[in-house]
Amino acid sequence: MRNPAQRLAAAAILAAFAAASGTATAADVNGPKLEWKFSSWGNPRAFTVGIEKLAAIVDKKTGGNFTIRVAHGEALSKAKENLDSIKINAIDGAHFCNFYSPGKNPAFMVFSLPFLPLGDWNVSLKVREALYKHPALVADMDNWNAMVYASTLLPQYEFLGRGDPPLKLADWKGKRVRAGGGLGDAMVVLGAIKTTTTATETYTSIQRGTMDAVSLPYTYAQVAYKIHEVAEWYTTNMSPGTSDCPIVFNKTSWGKLPEQYKKLVMDSKDEVNKTQIQAYVDIDKKNLPMLQSKLKEVTYTDAQLDEFRKVAGKPVWDKWVADNKDKFDAQGVLDLVFKTAGK
User: Lower CB density within 10 Å: C or N end of the chain?
Assistant: First the structure.
């Protein structure tokens, strides 16, 4: 049995340990217990790193009081229905892809126009953040009681396919391709037949031969959805464009969030963006050698790419502006892309 001195010493040690533990887990931001439900699709991957980073930050900084539960695999809502689920307050936030349901977010379709200057990470970030503030894009989200928090900064798209590889641009004629928005329109100019499916449906479509090629962000999504397992070739330098699948929040949920939690979320945005970009950079280092070892590379000449941009760049932009000029300031939205990129 310990003597009184030993008991006092042990108690002091335990008290010091408890104090140290308490300091380690103490919340930097105090507030009520609160959980948000966030809907995504597919498995955890580079695309989801941004929201997962935010969830980790708020959990740690609030001592577990504010948590964001990221539900993968369409567990909470279908990919094409995430905006609908926000509008009825079924979820607090979600990813959504602009070209999954173009009619729901017409101004956001600017991001899917081909050959926009979004190839540089910093330029892409600045352009996207500027566009999110444009009244037309704000109105798109207002219609669904949603607000954009941050972009997932999707990289440029490339194609993976099965069957005869399109070694020349003319070889795209008649090919059934998954390409959304203006990128799809650009492929139609080449004679391809565009289809719009969710990323989770592309593997089966290529495997069964109902689709010849699929465009996905290079290289993370191509491998994340295992398209390389059923494909035979991939394009290396087409860089026809990208799209936008941002992190959006429910405006009602945001309005109810304590001010200190709002500040924490907004103060974390830079770290979320940096983490998102690094995730793509890191996964490319792993994926690219694997694609090169398994699939045939299709690389186009500068002359071929110049021709592609000539016939499927500005003509597609002009058509998009003409088709939408009576719905919103389409020309102003497009001009903002080049104005911001030019800075």
Answer: N
Distance in angstroms (rounded) separating the CA atoms of residues 316 and 310: 10
- Which CATH number fits the domain that encloses residue 173? 3.40.190.10
What is the rounded average pLDDT of the residues 66-89? 97
Quote the domain boundaries for residue 67.
29-152+244-283
What is the separation of C-alpha 89 from the centre of its chain, rounded to a whole number of angstroms?
22
**Is residue 342 in a domain?**
no
Of 67, 94, 127, 117, which Cα lies nearest the Cα of 245? 94
What pairs with residue 158 in β-bridges?
216
Residue positions counted in the chain: 343
Do 186 and 308 share a domain, yes or no?
yes
Which tens digits make up the pLDDT trace of 148-183?
Answer: 999 999 999 999 999 999 999 999 999 999 988 888
Q: Convert 263-302 to b/e letters by CB count within 10 Å (16 or more is b).
A: ebbeebeeebbebbbebbeebbeebeeebeeebeebebee
Do the beta carbons of residue 242 and residue 111 sit within 8 Å? yes
33, part of any domain: yes
Place of tokens 């890191």: 282
Indicate whether 22 belongs to any domain. no
Q: What is the pLDDT of residues 235-293, one digit of tens each?
A: 999 989 999 999 999 999 999 999 999 999 999 999 999 999 999 999 999 999 999 99
What pLDDT, on a 0 to 100 scale, did the predictor assign at position 4? 41
Rounded Cα–Cα distance for residues 226 and 206 (Å): 11
Task: Please write down the long-range contacts of 187-192, taking CB distance under 8 Å and 24 or more positions apart.
Answer: 187/215, 187/240, 187/312, 189/311, 189/312, 189/315, 189/316, 190/308, 190/311, 190/312
How do strand 193-195 and strand 247-250 relate by DSSP bridges?
A: unpaired
C-alpha to C-alpha distances, 120 to 125, 179, 193, 342, nearest whole angstrom: 9, 21, 29, 12
Task: Judge whether 227 and 206 are in contact, CB under 8 Å.
Answer: yes
The torsion angles phi and psi of 232, rounded to 5 degrees, stand at -120, -15
